[in-house]
Amino acid sequence: MVLLAVRSLKSQNGMSLVELMVSIVVALLLLGGILQILVNSTQSHRIQNALMRVQENGQFAMELMAKDIRNTDFWGCLTSLDDVNNLLNGSGGGYDMGLHGFIEGISGTANESGGGPVITGTDTITVRGSRSVANGLTIQAPFGPITSSPINVGPNSNIQTSDTVLVSDCLVGDFFQATDVDSAGNISHAAGVGTPGNSTPNLSKVYTGDAAVYLPYTHTYDIRVGSSGLPALFRTDENGSQEIVEGVENMLILYGEDTDNDGTANRYVRANSVTDMDNVVSIRLNVVLETLEDNLTPTPQSYIFNEQTIVPGDNRLRRVYSSTIVLRNRSG
């Protein structure tokens, strides 16, 4: 009986100290592996989300600017601004198109543009053109008896008082400021009213049913420090400056100049090297976007921009976007 009791007690003995230590080490190894997988998964998720946001921002920025650049110098059916009369006072709030040209650029220098300092080393581009209103507005009867009479485009035109307007019948045109727009769609263009106002109420002619009305615009794109403290793409128009896309770090613009008048670019140069902006028929747009989050990589990740390898001073990721845009109203 004594022997059976001793054997029973021995069979109930716990783990030895060595076994316990081995078990703890194995558990720690398993736990460390799980934690490492969790950390790696979390970091991969951060990188993936950051890159997806960069891709979305990059595509949006390129599409927005490409559309504006592609449509530059569109004035309805007019082929030249030489036939457009400018009624606007002074600089016309940036809309005296014939004086400033259809496109302008500043290459890599710090400057003021519409209310803020542009980041040094980034390019600025200004495009001018006009857009159709409500799928195109034509002049409607009754037609004004004299050139100072309001022009009628019908109700619900979306043209507002103080808007800058272009009216054209493909032969001649006029830039003016709408000084009053009534519910019937009569657009007045009196002198001495509003800012900048019109220097005269007299249009070039009495426009009839073969004329159309457009809204001209001037859009300037540049890079400044955004609301988050990071570089951002800004657009300046008649309503002021707005932050469009955050995380746009750099922009380099090359102008395709047609030097032999065949409708295609013979060379691409920066704005300060263009011989004559009237010969520019395409634009090569290059932008760099950075992730909004830092410390995504253990070391700074280099990238190539403008044929140069650049090593940033942080651990963000960057993507370069490039596109060549044909100015369809200038080429061919």
What Rg do the Cα atoms give? 32 Å
Amount of beta strand: 25-35%
Count up the helices: 3
Q: Overall mean pLDDT score? A: 86
Short account of what is shown:
The protein has helices at about 1-10, 15-70, 95-100, and strands at about 85, 105, 125-140, 150, 165-170, 175, 180, 185-190, 210-225, 230-235, 240-245, 250-255, 265-270, 280-290, 305, 310, 320-325. The protein has about 325 residues and is α+β, with helices and mostly antiparallel strands.
Structure description:
Helices cover 20% and strands 32% of the residues. The protein contains three helices and 17 strands.
How do the strands and helices of this protein lay out in sequence?
Blueprint: H1 2-11, H2 17-70, E1 84-86, H3 97-100, E2 103-106, E3 124-138, E4 151-152, E5 164-168, E6 173-177, E7 180-181, E8 186-188, E9 212-225, E10 231-237, E11 240-246, E12 248-257, E13 267-269, E14 280-290, E15 303-305, E16 308-310, E17 318-326
